Give the backbone structure.
Amino acid sequence: MVAGGLALAFIVFWLAGHPGFREERIVMFLAITIMASTLIYFIRLANRGEKFHLRSIPGLKAVEEAVGRSTEMGKPVLYVPGIMDMDQVETVAGVIILGHVAKMTARYETSLNVPVSRSIVMKAGREIARESYTMEGRPDLFQDDMVHYLTDDQFAYAAGVNGIMVREKPAACLYMGKFYAESLILAETGNSIGAIQIAGTASQAQIPFFVTACDYTLIGEEFFAASAYLSQKPELLGGLKGQDMLKAFVTAAILLSLFLRVFSDLGWIGWNVIDFLTVQ
Amino acid sequence: MMKYIIELILSIGKVDRRWIFLVIGLAVLLPLFFPLGLPIRATTATQRVYDAVEELEPNSKVLVSFEYGPSTKPEIHPMAIAILRHLFTNSQKVYVTCLWPDGQFMAEDALTEIAEEEYGLTYGEDYVLLGFRPGNEAVVKGLVSNIRKLYTTDARGTLVDQIPMMANVNKVKDFDFIFSASAGYPGTIEWVQYAADPTGVPMSTGTTSIQVNDVMPYVQSGQVKGILAGMPGAAEYEALIGSPGIGTSGMDAQSIAHLVIVLFIVFGNITYFIETRRAKKY
Amino acid sequence: MLWKRQIPILIATVVGLLTLFGWFIDNPGIESFVNDDATQWFDILASFAIFLGALNLMKLQGRKVLKQHSGWQYSLFAIGGFIFAIVAGFIYKGNDAVAWGVHVTSKGTLFKWMFDFIFTPLSATMFALLAFFVASASYRAFRVRNLEATLLLVSGMIIMVGRVPLGSSISSWFIMYLLVLVGSVAANIKFQDKIITFGVLLGGVVIVTIWGSLAGWPVDQPSIFYLPMLQDWIYNNPNVAGARAIMIGIGLGIFATSIRYILGVEKSYIGE
């Protein structure tokens, strides 16, 4: 009903001359609206009890094993939430996964070391980790300095994290967030100390380095799906399903656009789909 | 004899990685002292950048943005120097901005070396360093709408209104060309998305080799006119402008280093192959 | 509870929706907020937040020195470096001819000296580590385990050699002879017959030699075996195709995740 009401309101607004609306961006507006509606639909579906099948992601299953391994060896878990600030979606996703990892370390009484590159990430990470420890009934184990600031500079941060790895020799290294060139430096150093390494990033250029040097890698969407996997919350799982449907829509749109472009180039139709899809 | 060779290969296959580091170190160092002079062939992507710059009318207004720091200086600085040389040779007016704070240091070095010392140009009339402003893509968006809202003074503290070449330059559309020397975020992609594509101002870029993957879709779609890919791209551009520099001198070292890595990979696979066959046998 | 949960979610929702849909609204005030103010507010917040991080850093390093934990001597460098940067940035210019602010990039100042002779070599050194780590990672990881790994290995080698000037000096005929050799090794593994192996090797060598002689041994022909051409093709076709696909997936992931934050479906970032 709400969706129908909003759609009707927009149609009325459009027919009334759409004052203040950039007409040339209507295609993008409709695309965003349809995509958001799809996500909301599947989230609501999941909240009503619908079950969705998710394929297993080895990297996520391995997180608990990695924490367990650290517990057995009496070594800390090193968690690196990327080098960017909270304005990046990947960093927020990385901090959320930190919350889940912190629950595991609280449960197994393993020490957790989270060096960060930005002050706001430090504050957010501390809040989430503190909540996680409290929810596990172990607020006594949490210390503020578990999540500590190193430096904003990319390679100084890499040097600092490498130093922590070489000195403390964590048994598990988790890299979850946005990374740039320092990714291989971190991963190779982690490999040299014999730690189990799990990486997750949507930084496309760094994925090959993590795949090469880490034991498990969450690639792109798998990284964003991690929060849903680890929490198993229905609304998050519904969002994942919605995301998959969006990908199917996008694939269909690409194929349709391909055919329309071919027809346009052959002169069979007088309408260029590229002009329609180009965002101004 | 064969058995001895196989055992030798297997023992070398388990070599400590520090030996690999030593060999790579020598492979990079020795060609710097004993250059090989390997010929440099420009790729299509580099040629497109050259052609885009060459096609500009003299006295065109070119916005050059420095988005790299000391760590990526070996890759990007040579191409920035080469681009500046090309622009100044063709009598273009160069406006320099920086989206990274480190970029301002790099820009100062490049402009001192090329504009001041090599070409003897006049600051404020032939080139200007607007400098760094924080805000990442907000800076690009600000430049698109109103430069003077972001830059009231240049990097040397002079009021922008008092700089002769800033007359009638108020937004990105007033420029004839954009070049982004970029090592990451914010950089080329932000310039394409928020400046070049919406305004229609032609743009080229030079990036680190690893970033080329990210930028290539924009190059292929024509939104970016060519790309200088890392140090090889810089060397190719230096060859095209006929002015070999640091990029060219680094190519011998890079060539040998790449060859050594390939040989290590081949060697590692021979070892893997022998071990696999043995495991199957026993 | 209201301050810790509902208000942050409300702020995230309102600002998120405004930023998302503000792009479609033709209003200078909203445009200005979306394009300039929102990101600048964040930058201002992040800049002031640096004090938190810096204080935390000094607290940890100072505690290490005072309690003389293992490696406390290195903490002296951290504290000393911090103080030195503060002095160079805010207290001592080193060149009275330049104004404060401009002094960070001006010649002859302490800050510029620190940037040129401490920060630059350190950054360049850390980045240079990648050269060594790429070599050791490649040596360890590039193995012919299956078809996909083999394709990765071969394309990686083609790009590594084809991208540099050395690749353009390697004739396509050399590559063809190399392929004949690889073919004969493969034939030997498959058929385990010396005659077949020798036949493949000899046949291949003869064909390539005759072909080359007739063509005049041009370095870059046939172009399918010329490493720079092959490298260009791999870069511009399968590589970009794969990169585009991953980019689309990542873009959708970012969109879906952002919508979850904006709509308040995902609340973990403010704690559960």
User: Anything to note?
Assistant: Strands of chain A lie at 77-80, 112-116, 147-149, 172-176, 196-201, 216-219. Chain A has eleven helices and six strands.
